[in-house]
Amino acid sequence: MKSRKTAVMVISFFALAALIAGLYLFWGPFPAVEQEKGHSQGQSAPASDQDQGAATVVPHTAINGAENGQAVMEAQPEAANIEIPESGQRYIGVQTVAAEKKSLVRTIRTVGRFEYDERKIVTVNTRIEGWIERLKVNYTGRYVKKGEVLAEIYSPELVAAQQEYLNILKWSRRDTAPSSDQNDGSLGRMLALDAEAMRQAARQRLMFWDITEAQLKKIEESGTPLRTLAVFSPVSGYALAKSALQGMKVQAGERLFDLVDTSTVWLLADVYEQDIALVGVGQKAEISTLALPGRVFASVVEYVSPVLAGETRTAKIRFTLPNKGGQLKPQMFADVGLKVNLGSRLVVPDAAIISTGVRQLVYVDKGEGYFEPREVRVGLKAEGLSEIIAGLAAGEKVASAATFLIDSEARLKGVVK
Predict the structure, then answer these.
(1) Distance in angstroms (rounded) separating the CA atoms of residues 166 and 161
(2) Inter-residue contact 238 to 122 (CB < 8 Å)
(3) Is the pLDDT of residue 78 over 50?
(4) Residue 50: CB atoms within 10 Å
(5) 416 with 81: CB under 8 angstroms?
(6) CA 389 to CA 363: how far, in whole Å?
């Protein structure tokens, strides 16, 4: 009898436990469901004191309609804002600036080297075969004036041509003498015309050999040929190269001297690939050199190379500078500053741009401590400013200081990925 009562009590205990478990499973989930519904209808649990002091992610929301007298809020697809209280902004040094249109002037700085003006390099040679009997300019670098004798060449062929000219000259003078006989006069005129034609041909031949008018006049007046042919300098300048030696035999067309006029010099400078599109003929530049401290030369670009150097990724540009007194010497280095007017463009400070390597971001100040990350397209850069091609309008304020701290907080909160 006692054992039966014990069994009934055990059965009653398990039945009561099962009833309690069933009631818990049946009634327990409802409070969570109500809380979930409250969140979906725009209700939120109060934040703790610690959460209220930190940066807060606030999604963009909009009111779509009303249900049971309550506004229904739905999340929009735009990027979320990040909240940084004003006290926090002051602490980390946040500054903002408005995007605005400005006239930009970009200065391209490069280095150049002075070279000879190739248009003023001349080669002196001879058109006859002979021997250098006298060498007047006997070392490289010697300064010569235009018309100065560089060398004297003896040529047997040239002496024979002069003697032939003198003989024709004597014959032409004899045949032009007047005659009393009419027939003899007609024949004399014909011979005189032939003699004059031969004289002109012989004279032209000597001139083709670089004998000057003054030398021809001297030959005609003296009646004797010149022993040597003088080679004159065609320009005033320096002997850049000299292959002539005293007593050496020269052939027709052989180069004797290279002369250069240094009254003007070239400056060749390198411009990098990313800047070459901004440089054109007529572009103004300021040039300075360490050899002449304090002096600035103004010049313009007169040539832009159509070829890019594969090793340095640069293109050559050229300037021509006057060189009065020869102060600018070839192979000197010079600093070049090219000022390029970029016109009016929408710009923000460079510090406002966050570059991820794939895209560029700015943080737009939406007011009341909220910042919106926004992707932009960046164009040219100059004077510490970056051009905004797309993504930002004039007048919108962006963070220009402590931008990296704002970006770090946005990434920690998951606003930017």
Answers:
(1) 9
(2) no
(3) no
(4) 7
(5) no
(6) 16
Query: What does the alpha-carbon distance between residue 100 and residue 110 come to, in Å, rounded to a whole number?
Result: 30
- Specify the pLDDT at position 197: 83
Query: What secondary structure does DSSP assign to 273-298, as a single string?
Result: TTTGGG--TT-EEEEE-TTSTT--EE
3-state secondary structure of 321: strand
Angle, CA of 148, 152 and 154, to the nearest 5°: 160
SS3 (DSSP) at 116: strand
Q: Are 108 and 244 in contact (CB under 8 A)?
A: no
pLDDT of 52 reads: 39
Query: Looking at the chain, how many residues does it have?
Result: 417
User: Which residues lie closer than 8 Å to 81 by C-beta, 6 or more apart?
Assistant: 57, 58, 59, 60, 366, 370, 371, 372, 415
| CATH number of the domain located at residue range(s) 123-258 in this protein | 2.40.50.100
CATH topology of domain 108-117+262-342: Elongation Factor Tu (Ef-tu); domain 3 (2.40.30)
- Averaged pLDDT, 229-233: 92
CA 261, CA 117: separation in Å to the nearest integer? 8
343-362: pLDDT as tens digits: 888 999 998 999 888 889 99
Enumerate the CATH 2.40.50.100 domain ranges in the chain, comma separated: 123-258
Per the CB < 8 A criterion, the answer to whether 400 and 349 are in contact is yes
* Domain span(s) for CATH 2.40.30.170 in the chain: 108-117+262-342
The whole-number pLDDT of residue 292 equals 93
**For the chain, what is the mean pLDDT?**
80
Q: Virtual CA dihedral for 185, 189, 195, 201, nearest 10 degrees?
A: 180
Share of the chain above pLDDT 70, in %: 77
* Long-range interactions of 413-416: CB distance < 8 A, separation 24+: 413/55, 413/57, 413/82, 414/57, 415/57, 415/79, 415/80, 415/81, 415/82, 415/373, 416/79, 416/361, 416/373
2 has pLDDT over 60:
no
Q: How does residue 16 score in pLDDT terms, banded at 50, 70 and 90?
A: low
Instruction: Using DSSP, state whether 155 is helix, strand or coil.
Output: coil
Task: Tell me the angle at which helices 213-222 and 182-208 cross, rounded to the nearest 10 degrees.
Answer: 130
